[in-house]
Specification:
- By secondary structure, the protein is mostly beta strands.
- Strand 35 and strand 36 form a beta hairpin.
- The chain is built from 1 helix and 68 strands.
- It folds into 7 domains: 24-372, 7 Propeller (Methylamine Dehydrogenase, Chain H); 385-452, no CATH class; 470-541, Immunoglobulin-like, CATH 2.60.40; 555-629, Immunoglobulin-like; 636-724, Immunoglobulins (Immunoglobulin-like, Sandwich), CATH 2.60.40; 728-815, Sandwich (Immunoglobulin-like), CATH 2.60.40.10; 825-899, Immunoglobulin-like.
- The strands form 16 sheets. Strands 7-8-9-10-11-12-13 form a 7-stranded antiparallel sheet, with no helix packed on it. Strands 3-2-1-4-5-6 form a 6-stranded antiparallel sheet, with no helix packed on it.
């Protein structure tokens, strides 16, 4: 896939314009001018409106959506939801469809609002935003009728900055007041449409029309009228500053609007694809200017009359994706074409009425000029390539005199040359991997880009040849093979022998020749992309065999000491005599594979002698294989089981292994309620975790027993001792403000190493605090004082004094109302008994206020946070009335009390 001129700057080749957003022109009369062919083909549309419309095509050349006077439509002719454009002017349509900078799916629709020419009421400039990928590719209108300018004349133009991908939107803005005309410019970036960036007044004017930016955005041309005379005046060519948006007049190209035949009408401007030629067209006249230099004198002197007669008359003209300029005639019956707009004078080749089509709209689509730019400098990243890892290939095309920049530059020998060398040296690839590279070249006007894809194919896995490394001279039928891999083919080469069979497969047979010091077996593995990997096996052809050391288990578990297999590579024509110490060969005597029963723990030995059957001189003895028979010492211990501090529905189990297990074993966590006989599998967990939280418990209701099981590296069972959790229960005695607690002992630690503690938190306390140590022999406490608060929370903590382990019980919560009982009499007579008005338990209600009144309602006492100190010393005997406010309950207690001295 080739993408040229990244994002919006699509530089088209001369062969196909399928990727151009304006690849289709809907001209009305159900006609489609199709630029995906060369030359463009006039054909009937298969779907959609019969009226004129502006289209936007995707990278495949299909119309993605189109816009006409009725609104915004999907490619199949269905109007998109929210697709009606309430404010529009199709009496003089200026309509642009532009990708939003930085996006490949969001598209702006810029259009003008209604203009009432009868009372000189100007319309506005608006935009809609379309997501072409929404609704499965049918598209969706995300925004519509978004106001940009409230008083645009109805003519505007759009072009881009070739360097950075932004757009400029330029148009005439003003009122009916003579001389009020000005030109405004808005920058369109990935962030959206900016407010006015610049205002310019290159010439005094009342009206301006026919705005057109050049493909490189450096020129702006438009028509204007005298501010004091509504008659048409002429066309003006201006410089446009792509950095600031400012417009500066360079030359007045025409001082009147009269055509060749003397008729008055508007000039229709258009630039060639390079931006070097400007054409002014109206009625029966076509004029060409050369604007390749900034000199006004040179530009005006380049004026050429291309066409002028009383024959066919012109209406609109528009540059096409193929670099030709198309124009409609006043009768709307045909299109004329300037075949070579870059050439000067008559050789530009104006051809009249070559696309007939009655019933067309007179209007041609408006296309952002930079999308049509055709540079003489064609950047070429070269054709797409497929390479193997480490293989070098050259990117790029024919070098030209320009500065090159490649991005990214990873795996390229240079990022600034026309033809860099690519060699993949990155991490291994396991599947075809696509890497994209973009070359950027600046032609002085625009930065042009081309893209190339390099597909890196994976290298086949390295083959491993198995077979005899040492053989007797003349031995025949010796087999060699590699593990066959899907999608690979194999090519074998033998030095010192003859390949008998198997070429192209994963297994071959070889007849070896006479004695040779450096015989080899070589295989090359090929994948479907012809990427290769090579393996070579050296073979010794000599009567003195170098018999290989037997292979098999060397550390052997004591419980697996019987039936252990040992092998050497089998060589055709050889017999094998095995030697052993510390065990007995059970099967396979005389062959290349045996089984052994080892005898007990310790170091044992095994070796083999190989001899050719046909040649008693050709033999060899292997090195000794030392085998250690051992017993696995691994132990598994259950360290602790603790109920969660934050939840009574969780139990955390922790354990320790004396050494890691290497056989991918998992630990089985078993659980049962204490007193039950049936174990349940609570979990299967990795041995390396060290702990597991069981969230399936109800610790308030049950004490739980846990144990763990697994298997060691010798596949022997390991099991821990049982641990039992602490379950705490409690009873509240509100009548005497006491409570009792009872719990069971923790099982799993030695009782002598276990210490218990009682922990408590009251009311709104955040954390538990130690209340008291507990006895190791008694598992209950009675008569705990409940006057510490209303909501009591208790836990038992067990501590292991040997290893600092800690476990917790479940939480017991006990509630007390602590209702106040207020006496109706007190005797302040100095006998130190009942001398003050005391209210038992009032200290539990610290935010309180006591107020006392006499029988006449006069306040005689008041105290916040009453301490029980009121004695009524200054009052006489009698009945008094109190009011006690308790903030905890947000209530008032009212009653009476008698003073009896």
């Amino acid at each position: 896939m080739k993408l040229i001129f990244t994002l919006f700057f699509v530089l088209l080749s001369t062969a196909s314009f399928a990727q151009h957003p304006a690849a289709h022109w809907y001209l009305g009369g159900n006609s489609d001018l199709d630029f995906t062919t060369t030359p463009a083909t006039l054909r009937l549309k298969s779907t959609g409106t019969t009226n004129q419309a502006t289209t936007f095509s995707d990278s495949t050349g299909r119309v993605a959506f189109y816009v006409n006077e009725a609104g915004i439509f999907s490619r199949n002719g269905q109007q998109m939801p929210n697709g009606t454009l309430a404010l529009r002017d199709f009496s003089n349509p200026t309509l642009y469809l532009i990708l939003k900078p930085g996006s490949t799916t969001l598209c702006y629709v810029f259009y003008t609002g209604f203009i009432n020419y009868a009372n000189n009421t100007f319309g506005g400039l608006y935009y809609a935003l379309v997501d072409m990928a929404a609704n499965g590719g049918a598209g969706a209108v995300l925004q519509r009728d978004q106001l940009i300018e409230p008083n645009l004349h109805g003519s505007f133009t759009i072009s881009g900055q070739c360097a950075n991908g932004d757009y400029w939107l330029v148009g005439g803005y003003g009122t009916s007041i003579p001389g009020s005309e000005k030109i405004v410019a808005h920058r369109i970036t990935a962030s959206g449409v900016a407010p006015q960036v610049a205002e310019s007044v290159p010439v005094p004017a009342q009206w301006s029309y026919g705005y057109k930016l050049s493909p490189t955005s450096n020129w702006l041309v438009y028509n204007y009228q005298n501010p004091n005379n509504p008659a048409p005046l002429g066309s003006v060519l201006c410089r446009f500053d792509v950095n600031t948006g400012q417009v500066t007049r360079v030359a007045t190209l025409s001082t009147n609007f009269k055509s060749y035949a003397g008729t008055t009408s508007n000039w229709r401007p258009e630039f060639s694809a390079s931006g070097n030629k400007l054409y002014l067209m109206k009625a029966d006249t076509l004029i060409q200017f050369d604007v390749s230099t900034p000199s006004a004198t040179t530009i005006l002197g380049s004026r050429r009359l291309i066409y002028g007669s009383n024959g066919p008359t012109f209406n609109f003209q528009q540059l096409g994706p193929d670099g030709r300029i198309y124009s409609s005639n006043d009768a709307n019956t045909a299109l004329s074409v300037i075949q070579s707009p870059e050439l000067s004078g008559q050789v530009c080749d104006l051809r009249l009425n070559i696309y007939p089509g009655p019933g067309w709209s007179p209007f041609l689509p408006s296309i952002a000029s930079h999308l049509l730019y055709r540079s003489p400098l064609q950047p070429d990243a070269g054709p797409d390539r497929t390479v193997c890892v480490g293989e070098a290939t050259s990117l790029g095309g024919t070098p030209v005199s320009a500065a090159y920049t490649w991005s990214p530059n990873t795996y390229l020998h240079s990022a600034t040359t026309a033809k860099p060398t690519f060699r993949y040296t990155g991490p291994p690839v396991t599947a075809p991997t696509d890497l994209w590279y973009t070359v950027a070249v600046n032609d002085g006007n625009c930065t042009l880009r081309d893209r190339v894809k390099v597909t890196v194919q994976p290298t086949p896995a390295a083959p491993l040849i198995s077979g005899s490394r040492s053989v007797c001279p003349g031995i025949q039928g010796v087999e060699y093979e590699v593990a066959a891999q899907a999608g690979l083919t194999y090519r074998w080469q033998i030095i010192g022998g003859t390949l008998v069979s198997g070429q192209g497969t994963a297994k071959v047979t070889v007849n070896w020749g006479p004695r040779i010091p450096q015989a080899t077996v070589q295989v090359v593995a090929y994948n479907s992309s012809s990427c290769t990997n090579i393996a070579t096996l050296p073979v010794r052809i000599n009567p003195a065999l170098q018999t290989e050391t037997p292979t098999g288990e060397t550390p052997v578990c004591l419980n697996q000491q019987d039936g252990v297999a040992y092998t050497v590579t089998k060589t055709t024509g050889s017999v094998y005599t095995w030697g052993i110490r510390g065990g007995r060969v059970m099967t396979g005597k005389g062959s290349s594979r045996i089984t052994v029963n080892w005898t007990g723990l310790g170091q044992h030995r095994l070796w083999v002698q190989e001899q050719a059957v046909a040649d008693t001189i050709c033999y060899g003895v292997s090195d000794t294989l030392r085998v250690n028979v051992f017993q696995d010492p691994t132990t598994l211990s259950l360290s602790a089981v603790s109920i969660g501090l934050g939840s009574d529905n969780e139990a955390t189990i922790s354990w320790a292994l004396s050494q890691p297990l290497t056989n991918n074993q998992r630990i089985t966590v078993l659980r049962r309620a204490a007193g039950s006989s049936a174990w349940q599998d609570a979990a299967q967990v990795p041995t390396a975790l060290g702990s597991y939280t069981d969230k399936g418990v109800a610790a308030d209701d049950y004490s739980y027993e846990y144990l763990l099981r697994t298997r060691n590296n010798c596949d022997e069972p390991l099991e821990t001792i049982l641990h039992r959790t602490i379950r705490l229960t409690g009873v509240a005695r509100p009548g005497d403000d006491k409570l009792d607690l009872i719990w069971n002992a923790y099982t799993g630690w030695p009782p002598a190493d276990t210490r218990y503690e009682l922990w408590r938190k009251v009311d709104k306390e955040d954390a538990y605090t130690l209340l008291r140590p507990l006895s190791n022999s008694s598992f209950s406490v009675s008569d705990l004082d409940a006057l510490a608060g209303f909501e009591h929370h208790y836990k038992i903590r067990a501590n292991n004094t040997k290893n600092a382990l800690v476990v917790w019980s479940n939480e017991v919560e006990l509630s007390f109302e602590h209702a106040l009982i207020i006496a109706n009499i007190f005797t302040p007579n100095g006998d130190k008994r009942n001398d003050t008005f005391r209210i038992p338990k009032l200290e539990l209600y610290p935010e309180n206020e006591l107020t006392v009144f006499n029988r006449y309602g006069k306040q005689v006492f008041q105290q916040k946070n009453y301490t029980g100190s009121w004695s009524g010393a200054d009052l006489g005997n009698g009945v008094y009335y109190y009011q006690l406010f308790l903030k905890r309950l947000n209530t008032y207690h009212k009653g009476w009390v008698q003073i009896a001295k």
